[in-house]
Predict the structure.
Amino acid sequence: MKVIIVGGGQVGAYIAQTLIRSNFEVKVIENRSHIVEKLKMDIPEKAIFEGEGTNHFVLEQCGIMNADILVAVTGADETNLVISTLAKFEYGVPKVIARVNNPKNEWLFSAGMGVDLHLNQANLMSKMIIESMDVSDMLTLMPLYNSAYSIVQFKVLHSSVVHGKAIKDIKLPSESLLIAITRNEKVILPKGDQIVLSDDEILAIVCEDSRQEFTRLFQV
């Protein structure tokens, strides 16, 4: 899987590190020399390209014609939109993901601008604050493209019927997937023998039709 990340700041660097550890083929484009030098301490130098992410030559040198995913995470919304449009409509990149810096610009990050998925950090943070105030509710962190699926977060309540059960013994809704369990500030991968306990925080992919069933299993 080939991924091009435009923007080598903290967000871009973290995404690159994570993908490289998962054996993705990654190129990070960054135009600021001091950030490039910092990137060299975090990821392999061969994964870094110094240049403008809106420049056709730079994009082509990084292999955009064969890229599976492009991620635009610069600090400027207008730059992320230009990069997204180029990637989708001039180079036909299958998946284009863009960062929204100013929530007022979110409406611009649409399929018409070449964006398949946009990440509004301010919106995500506000949802997480709300979740920390009322952990009994299932919180939608992110819709997945334009489908009925979402990434959700919720806490296993003491009244849950799954408390003390192994995941393999829990009959999950067919169109759902557990992603991670957080317990005592530690992340646990949800394998079959893993026991679910009350107060565990669950991250899952859930179809809209499955939300009530998830609530019945993990909270009621």
User: Anything to note?
Assistant: The domain at 134-218 is CATH 3.30.70.1450 (Alpha-Beta Plaits).
